[in-house]
Amino acid sequence: MQEIFMQKKIFTYCIILISLCVGILFGSCSSYFNSLKHLKVSPETLAQNSRMVLLASQDDKLKIVAKMTYLNEIDNSIYRNREYFFLEIFNDDEDVILPDSMQITMFNRKPLWIRPINTDELDDILVLENELSSGYLIAFRRASAFEQKKINIELSITNFKKGVFDFSYVLLKSKL
To answer: What string of pLDDT tens digits covers the 176 residues of the chain?
Structure first.
């Protein structure tokens, strides 16, 4: 009888320990956007780290607007050897299915991952400019110091001409 009581006690302790581990594991997970809440980024800084492209269909009848923001320049302390970008795509054509029809590369390398962003994850810094826009967080392997001076992100969408976000040109740090 005492043996059964000890087994139940050990089982209870194991359940409590597993629950604590799971709580710590999942409780400590946070999205990129939650970790940005402490930042105070000026609109000028955000604008300087963003690029826009207009993608036209092969027949020039349809247009898609895309804006990409290089997040490492905003706060590089949380990136852990990756290049992070926020991509917003305005698309009002229901025949263009994103992200399935989208190919994106940096130095001809595919991203480590692309994750759609829900509107409840957005904050004061990164917002979707239009209700028809879709947002994506994109991570690439860290570029070498030499490559970081020439970052170009190529975006291809099926049946559209390729767009290039050119982050290679230097912007002056200024306060307006």
So the answer is: 555 545 544 544 444 434 443 343 333 334 444 444 445 667 777 778 889 999 988 888 888 899 999 888 766 556 577 889 999 999 877 777 777 888 999 999 999 999 998 877 877 667 888 888 889 999 999 888 888 889 999 999 988 999 999 988 665 565 55
- pTM for the model stands at 0.70
What string of H, E and C letters represents the secondary structure of the chain?
Answer: CHHHHHHHHHHHHHHHHHHHHHHHHHHCCCCHHHHCCCCCCCHHHHHHCEEEEEEEECCCCCEEEEEEEEHHHCCHHHCCCEEEEEEEEECCCCCCCCCCCEEEEECCECCCEEEEECHHHCCCCCCCCCCCEEEEEEEEECCCCCHHHHCEEEEEECCECCEEEECCCCCCCCCC
Whole-angstrom CA distances from 128 to 2, 11, 75, 153, 161 are 62, 49, 20, 20, 23
